[in-house]
């Protein structure tokens, strides 16, 4: 099998997933995508040109991965320091830049908080700031000004005034003029606050449908892994470790190349639902209390629901989301048992535990390989054949896991020096 999946389904699923980080602000990314589209259209850009701006809108804050960062950008004027304002755009670019279809969107996102008056500043002289970054910036700030508890047309005057005050300083003047035209039409305000918003975005993107296969799916699963794992230094390389050990085990257990690749993608995305778990719980330096553990249990439920919104993902969704199910039926969130857990789900469960035990956690040190294997062998609710395969190939699989994690660790460490260099943080 090699399923073909429309990229837009994956992007919308990721867009909804990143809004889970702050439950108080839902649909921010979709609204910003739509507002950007309306402004760019009013400025005379073609549908074809605007497509990358819409993609950028849908994912623009994917680099603001923790709640503090995420909450601060929801103030109209934020980022007293240059670093605070621009670092999440830069991280967003880093997260997205390797997926071919998102390369232009990543460039737009990188500069989405550059003020219009800053473009002539020395810092940005060597940067090629896309014009769409300015439109995205404006759309983003328009959305920040919306009060979800007030009737939308009643807010039009205030929002337009605030935006006009920022013309030429924060915002590109032509984009502000276009916004004024769009803002005079009530449908625009109703669209951004109605439940038809997602349908509108799907309609806008329908002429640009691009499909991917299992090989390219890895690029998008990799984005999911970067978004999830960047939230905590303790898990920065967790998903890649799970992905590489699970796909190695899958190959050894007779999976085809295509299915092993799908297993790799499932490993990268298995903790997607952790976006709804606060960092205070993810990083708690002790064991979780009952309340925290109940919250934690929801992560595989959300992994399932997020991936279920991407038709055609099939077994990747199941392998990813069933990693806390147990053969005796006592796992979560579905309480599945050995009759319904296939080999792929069993492989992922073993790989998740294997990788987690070899990593540092806030409440314990990384376990030795010998102790890890001993502990896993003693867990009766994990599959016997998968455990046996891990035992037989432990050195090789551990090497694969460790090497993949080291590569990711190194590339994560490089982003901030690169950011300093690109924006001349030390030179000015
Ligand atoms: Fe932002
Ligand atoms: Fe935003
Ligand atoms: Fe995990």
From TrEMBL:
Domain HD-GYP, first and last residues per copy: 3-195, 213-406
Gene3D superfamilies in alphabetical order: Hypothetical protein af1432
Family matches, as InterPro entries: HD/PDEase_dom (IPR003607), HD_domain (IPR006674), HD_GYP_dom (IPR037522), HDIG_dom (IPR006675)
Record-level Gene Ontology MF annotations: hydrolase activity
UniProt cross-references to Pfam families, sorted A to Z: HD (PF01966), HD_5 (PF13487)
Secretion signal, residue range per the UniProt entry: none
UniProt cross-references to NCBIfam families, sorted A to Z: HDIG (TIGR00277)
Protein name: Metal dependent phosphohydrolase
């Amino acid at each position: 099998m090699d399923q073909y999946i429309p990229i837009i389904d994956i992007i919308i699923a990721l867009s909804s997933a990143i809004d889970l980080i702050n439950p108080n602000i839902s649909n921010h990314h979709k609204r910003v995508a739509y507002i950007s589209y309306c402004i760019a259209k009013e400025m005379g850009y073609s549908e074809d040109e605007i497509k990358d701006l819409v993609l950028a809108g849908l994912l623009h804050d994917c680099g603001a991965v923790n709640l503090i960062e995420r909450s601060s950008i929801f103030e109209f004027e934020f980022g007293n320091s240059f670093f605070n304002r621009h670092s999440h755009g830069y991280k967003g670019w880093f997260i997205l830049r390797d997926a071919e279809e998102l390369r232009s969107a990543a460039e737009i996102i990188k500069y989405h908080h550059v003020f219009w008056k800053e473009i002539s500043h020395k810092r940005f002289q060597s940067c090629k700031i896309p014009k769409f970054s300015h439109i995205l910036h404006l759309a983003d700030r328009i959305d920040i000004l919306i009060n979800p508890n007030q009737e939308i047309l009643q807010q039009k005057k205030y929002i337009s005034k605030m935006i006009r005050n920022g013309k030429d300083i924060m915002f590109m003047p032509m984009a502000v003029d276009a916004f004024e035209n769009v803002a005079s039409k009530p449908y625009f305000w109703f669209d951004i606050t109605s439940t038809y918003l997602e349908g509108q975005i799907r309609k806008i993107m329908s002429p640009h449908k691009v499909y991917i296969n299992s090989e390219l799916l890895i690029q998008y699963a990799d984005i999911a892994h970067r978004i999830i794992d960047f939230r905590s230094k303790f898990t920065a390389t967790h998903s890649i470790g799970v992905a590489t050990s699970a796909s190695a085990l899958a190959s050894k257990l007779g999976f085809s190349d295509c299915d092993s690749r799908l297993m790799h993608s499932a490993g990268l995305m298995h903790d997607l639902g952790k976006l709804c778990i606060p960092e205070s719980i993810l990083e708690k330096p002790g064991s979780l209390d009952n309340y925290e553990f109940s919250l934690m249990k929801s992560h595989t439920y959300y992994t399932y629901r997020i991936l279920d919104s991407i038709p055609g993902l099939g077994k990747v969704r199941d392998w990813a989301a069933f990693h806390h199910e147990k053969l005796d039926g006592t796992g979560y969130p579905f309480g599945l048992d050995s009759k319904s857990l296939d080999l792929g789900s069993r492989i992922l469960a073993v790989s998740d535990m294997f990788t987690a035990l070899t990593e540092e956690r806030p409440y314990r040190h990384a376990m030795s390989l010998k102790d890890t294997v001993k502990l896993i062998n003693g867990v009766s609710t994990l599959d016997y054949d998968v455990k046996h395969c891990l035992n037989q190939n432990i050195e090789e699989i551990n090497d694969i896991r460790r090497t993949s994690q080291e590569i990711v660790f190194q590339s994560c460490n490089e982003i901030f020096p690169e950011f300093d260099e690109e924006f001349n943080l030390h030179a000015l």
